[in-house]
Amino acid sequence: MNEHLHTALSLAAQSVPVLPLRAGKLPFGNCPACARNACGGRPNMKTPGPCVCPRPCHGWAAATTDPHTINSAAWAPVWRHAAAVAYHPGGAGVTVVDLDDPAAIAWARKTLPATRTVATTRGEHWIYRGTMPSANAVRPGVDVKSLIAYARWLGPGTGAVVALPDAVRALAVEPSAARRAPQTLSAPLSGQRGACPHRTPSYLERGIAMAEQRIGTASSAVHATVYRTFLAVLSTHGRCGCLTETHAARLFTAAQVKGESARHCTDAWTNALTTLGL
After folding, report:
1. Which residues neighbour 32 within 8 Å (Cβ) at sequence distance 6 or greater?
2. Which of 53, 73, 118, 133 is deepest in the core (most CB within 10 A)?
3. pTM above the 0.85 mark?
């Protein structure tokens, strides 16, 4: 049996909702039946929506504990190409404090109660019992992953899980509120929320292809180019429901080919959403 499939089934048996990840720690894109929100699922993934696609579509919302789904013929091709297993912390009743570097770990050891710790490539995951809203970059090198998010499974870790402290809950409220306040735009966005102004899918396809090319041809200031490109795509297509995870994954892939990390891509995307008030 595939190693990642075996891990997923084992976790599901422990009531941990799981999903496969492809290279770059990204979820697999939506299938053709779910492209352009045709299935009715919500592209921003704040709720799973009515989609009942048998494939692992829609990012974190695809996470499941159903062994029949995980081991189904629809998921089998994905497991053959999976690079890792992820899980939905909120669905498992926990919160992950993702500490991305030694400085963040040092801060956590001084500030937060000790709990179960899982080593990551560059830092540590601290696991707490309880759920809360997820938030990226709540402080330097620190993300909080719980509801409406996924975290990579890196093993059971060490230590006992303790209750989610108020110090962690506060991270997603006070620091991020001021930082993420929507900014005023100098020009209105194209389209209106809930109504697509684009006449054909080819308009969006051309836009994504041009964005990939813009990132791919950047010879300097790659960080800035990626952010400006994300901002341009979201300003045109971010309100009408056209964008899917497949489109975002294409842009993330183009950026990672130029040397951007998955974290930098996520931060740039989040910052663009914040700037536009989406």
Report:
1. none
2. 118
3. no
Pairing of strands 135-139, 124-129: unpaired
Widest Cα–Cα separation across the chain? 56
What secondary structure letter does DSSP report for 94? E
Residue type, 164: L
Contact 131, 93 (CB under 8 A): yes
Distance separating alpha carbons of residues 108 and 86, to the nearest angstrom: 23
Kind plus residue range of the DSSP H or E element containing 237 = helix 222-237
| CB neighbour list of residue 270: distance below 8 Å, 6 or more residues apart | 136, 137
* Per-residue pLDDT reduced to its tens digit, 79-106: 999 999 999 999 999 999 999 999 999 9
What are the pLDDT digits (tens) for 227-258?
A: 888 888 888 787 777 777 778 888 888 888 88
Higher pLDDT, 145 or 268: 145
DSSP SS3 for 98: strand
pLDDT higher than 50, residue 185: no
According to the model, what pLDDT value does residue 55 have?
Answer: 86
3-state secondary structure 150-215: CEECCCCCECCCEECCHHHHHHCCHHHHHHCCCCCCCCCCCCECCECCCCCHHHHHHHHHHHHHHH
Query: Is the dihedral angle over the CA atoms 44, 49, 50, 54 positive or is it negative?
Result: positive
